[in-house]
């Protein structure tokens, strides 16, 4: 069973789409990933819904 799902979200800095590969089997997660276009750090927050689908929010990295 594949627990990886690709989610596309806009970068909070440049607005370009970021394709994030989410491991749905890992549960809720918070991490930082650099935008592949503008290279600025983006905070990624992942919550797994009851149905197993990832709910992804991104925001500019503080600091």
Give a written overview of the molecule.
With 63 residues, the protein is an all-beta fold. It has no helices and 5 strands. It has a 3-stranded antiparallel beta sheet with strand order 3-4-5, with no helix packed on it. It starts with a strand and ends with a strand. This is CPXCG motif-containing cysteine-rich protein.
Strand and helix layout:
Layout: E1 4-10, E2 17-23, E3 29-34, E4 41-48, E5 54-60
Antiparallel strand pairs: 1-2, 3-4, 4-5
Strand content: over 45%
Radius of gyration: 12 Å
Strand order of the main beta sheet, please?
3-4-5
Distance between the termini: 38 Å
Output the structural class.
Answer: mainly beta
Which geometry do the CA atoms define?
Answer: elongated
The ordered string of helix (H) and strand (E) elements is EEEEE
> Low-confidence stretches at least 5 residues in length (pLDDT < 50)?
none
Q: Would you count the extended β strands for me?
A: 5
The number of domains is 1
What summary fits the major beta sheet? Answer: 3 strands, antiparallel
Helicity, in percent? under 10%
Protein name: CPXCG motif-containing cysteine-rich protein
Pfam families: Zn_ribbon_21
Main attributes of the structure:
two-stranded antiparallel sheet, mainly beta, UCP037225, about 55% strand, about 60 residues, three-stranded antiparallel sheet
